[in-house]
Amino acid sequence: MSRRDRFLLFAAGFETALAILAVILGLLFRINPAGTLRFDWYAIGWGLGAVAPALLLFGMVDSLPLEPLRRIRRLLHTTLGQTFAACHPLELLVLAALAGIGEELLFRGFFQVWLGQWGYWTGIIGASVLFGLAHAVTPTYAVLAALMGLYFGFLFDLQDPPNVLIPILTHAIYDWIAFLWIAREVRRESAEYDRVGDET
């Protein structure tokens, strides 16, 4: 099995496990993490439209010349870049969809609803902090992930009652575009490296 295949299998299994964990926690605490999932055009429209602000944050991380952000870029490129570059875009789409479903069912569908029993802000901030901690590969990345979790939390509450479809769509499409961008950047860097090597 190739490195790419191992990565896809592990990542898909991990994101699926998060969805299963959400269901198990839901059974223990009598909360259905998919209970707020409703398909309607309002949710679909917001889920798609809300991708743009999320991509602005990604663009900032990718372009600002700050050392903590450069460290995140290097980490993403070295740990995931080559594998992403070896994947077909549809494979990355499936992976992004699983991430959107698994993570949003757990952090918004369960944790935000559960913590929300102690108040609106307790729910949205608590779930966002947990989301950041789950992505704490660096301190800066944890903070950025928590901010993104806060954004997803507000999207979850856009409808009354809340609808987890909105953050699922935004999260999945954002991840897919980010995966494709990282893969593109790694391919470009590899091509430049090869070109310089040929010239020397």
From TrEMBL:
Residues 90-177 form the CAAX prenyl protease 2/Lysostaphin resistance protein A-like domain. GO terms for molecular function: endopeptidase activity. The chain crosses the membrane at residues 7-29, 41-61, 82-102, 114-134, 141-158, 164-183. The keyword Transmembrane applies. InterPro entries: Rce1/LyrA-like_dom. Keywords: Hydrolase, Membrane, Protease, Transmembrane, Transmembrane helix. GO terms for biological process: CAAX-box protein maturation; proteolysis. Pfam families: Rce1-like. This is CAAX amino terminal protease self-immunity. It comes from Stratiformator vulcanicus.
